[in-house]
Amino acid sequence: MNDIYDFDCIVAGGGIAGSLAAASAGRMGLSVLLAEEQGALGGSMTSSGTGPMMTFHAGSTQVIRGITDELVRRLVKKGLSPGHTVDSTGYTYTVTPFDAEGFKRELELMCLEAGVTILYHASIESVSLCAGRAESVSLLSCGKKLSARAPYFIDATGDGDLIFQAGVPYAEGRDSDGKDQPMTMNFRLSNVDIDSIRALMDKDASLFPFLRSKIGIQKEASRLSCSGFEDIMKDGIKRGEITFDRDIALFFETNTRGEVIVNMTRINGESPVDPFGISRAETEGRRQVWELYAFMKKHIPGFACAHLIASGPSIGIRSSRRMKGIYTITADDILSARRFDDAVVAFGYPIDIHSSDGAATDSRFLKDGEYYTIPYRTLINASVPNIMAAGRDISASFEAQASTRLSPCCGALGEAAGVAAAIAKRHGCLPIDVPTGELRSVLKEQGAFLG
Ligand SMILES: Cc1cc2nc3c(=O)[nH]c(=O)nc-3n(C[C@H](O)[C@H](O)[C@H](O)COP(=O)(O)OP(=O)(O)OC[C@H]3O[C@@H](n4cnc5c(N)ncnc54)[C@H](O)[C@@H]3O)c2cc1C
Q1: Exposed, middle or buried: residue 275 (CB in 10 Å: 0-12, 13-18, 19+)?
Q2: Rounded average pLDDT over 177-195
Q3: Domains delineated in the chain
Q4: 108, 124, 157: which to mutate for ligand 1, most atoms within 8 A of CB?
């Protein structure tokens, strides 16, 4: 017989969405289990080395606030983030760099302060259903099986593992052929000569495609973000020094000056939820890291003395399973800046699809300064109605998910799911029956901007 533990709410996955869902529900009095398969919180942001957070703004309006912005303020106070700063790639409005170790610790503190029970090294193995509802999950941790029961569950695994185990309908990949966006093994380099790159931006904006119409914005950026050097990349591919499709050099300075996150490797043709596929992707990702590291040191200005600190550690997954919820947000909703009556998040990042086939990125922008909203109905489903989704596995079309997957949005979705679970508990109802007026009021009281 396994050990059985009881909670009000079980959150699967401790990325930004799951951590902030757990902290939000815990603050409202729920006993919460946060089950995370790694040994730290932050998910993609800490275990796949992604960042900076992008973007809290739509024009001059800060649209991501609430607990996600509280996280930033806490990091800033401890010198672990410079806060929101201009995006000097010119792609979006602001970026929010952070220290990855600080990020892990601060999320942990926020959960612990809210009374959340964190269970690390715990992978969701299976879900038991009773009368069409999830009753308990079986977890494997340290070679031991544990069971945990709750009336409410939040799938924040990014890959919809809980949803999949529970038999909730889901979609994966693009409609035409089911292919996901490429995976990427990010890596971190120190000792990069940022001043020399800034000087190049000042001198020749034509090297940086999104900067061409925003000349000079890099001067306002407290940390540098850079997207450019297309010709150097093209020549590298021609000479065979780069053996995969990538059209541009893309890197972001972290909280630590002279340290950058490089977001350039690209692994296509593998599914992130195929066990052997993801293992091949990890290996190929690391091969590309070493290839690019050598190439950048040799050819990209400012990188001659760069030092490789870390890859990943795990490969970054942009898209995988997406729950089929009561409503599926679409590209059209995003690009028309749609306002929903049951909106729980507002967001202003474009649709940013890294091609599943080649080097290109398909970017579709909202009108300057515009934002869209995300309805609560994308977090809930009719099939197993006491399971909610939060973060990158909410109910979104392939194209829409290419915007909603960004970390500030996932944090805000986590807060919405955690608060919804608390309201459901208060009323003794299913998430599907949560009064959305009340949900929105509580989110607003907690500082969220809902449009
Ligand atoms: C290469 C790349 C670059 C990116 N760059 C940026 C960027 O610059 N800015 C930005 O804002 N966003 C960026 N993103 C997007 C962003 O990092 C993620 O989409 C976002 O952080 C997802 O948050 P999440 O909490 O929904 O999921 P995740 O961060 O994926 O967290 C899911 C968590 O669930 C855990 N988990 C998974 N399965 C199980 C299981 N069965 N049992 C228990 N735990 C489980 C995982 O270990 C993980 O901790 C990037 C993504 C990629 C892949």
Answers
A1: exposed
A2: 96
A3: 3-81+95-176+319-445 (3.50.50.60), 187-311 (no CATH)
A4: 157
